[in-house]
Amino acid sequence: MRFKISVFRIVGIALAVLVLAELCMLAVAGTGLITSLAINLHLLKSTSGPFWATSTLVGALPTSTSLPPAATSTQTVPTQTPVPPPTHTSTPVPTPTPTPAPTDTPAPPTPTSTSTLRPTDTPTPTLTYTPTPAPTPTPAPPTATPTPSIDFVVVHQRMWTNGENGGLSINGTVNGCGYGHQIYVWAIDAAGNPLSGVVIGDTYNNPKHITGEKGPGHAQYDLYKNGYQLLVVEDTNAGRPVTSEISQVMSSNDWEIPIPWLIEGQYCATEEECLSRRADPDRVGSNSLCWGHYSYEIIFQRTW
Question: Can you give the pTM of this predicted structure?
Fold first, then answer.
């Protein structure tokens, strides 16, 4: 009896090992098969029947047919009561839906390092010294233009030479007289421009002449064995009385002409010759120069 039990135990252990190996191969079949095998093992341990009973039990084990997954509920096996193996209906195992592998979310792009512009050094401007301009002096109020002591002065006066007057002289001595016997008068302003409207007179109040009557700023006197000392007696441009210098005598009489003028005019070469040849009212018959035929020019200039 004891021998039979030992054989049974050995066979049971071998069966258990085979079952465990099959379980490893059929793990995908679910947990229902495991439950069935557990029942068979329990029966093997509890039965005391003959060996063939064991064979029948083993032959009742299900084949390696795919089994549906068993329910997760725990099944209570009655103690000491052999339970016939359940008949299992093959249920197709649902195909597991493959879980899609998570896709790698691309990491955000690494920010590109932006080079920071270094501020350039702004050169400190060099201070330039600007001198303060000196204050412009305020001009003094204009003073009244002082009235000149003389409005017109004689700036030029001379006697023409014998040749200028139309005569002929040889070696400074008259050899023929000209026919001119005039005084040519000009008036000019302070800048030297011809000035018309100036009234010319003489010290004896003879008839007057006005510049402009013979051309711009020009007047003229005729001499008939006489002479004049001329001056400006009026300036129609001034609007007031004017003063004037008086010229030297300009005469056509020999004795009223200075000896130096006669020599410069080449009427006589020396003073002795001039004195011996000129006409003289105190000496009758003396007239070998050019009595009555001498000409002059004179310029009056206004001083303002």
Answer: 0.53
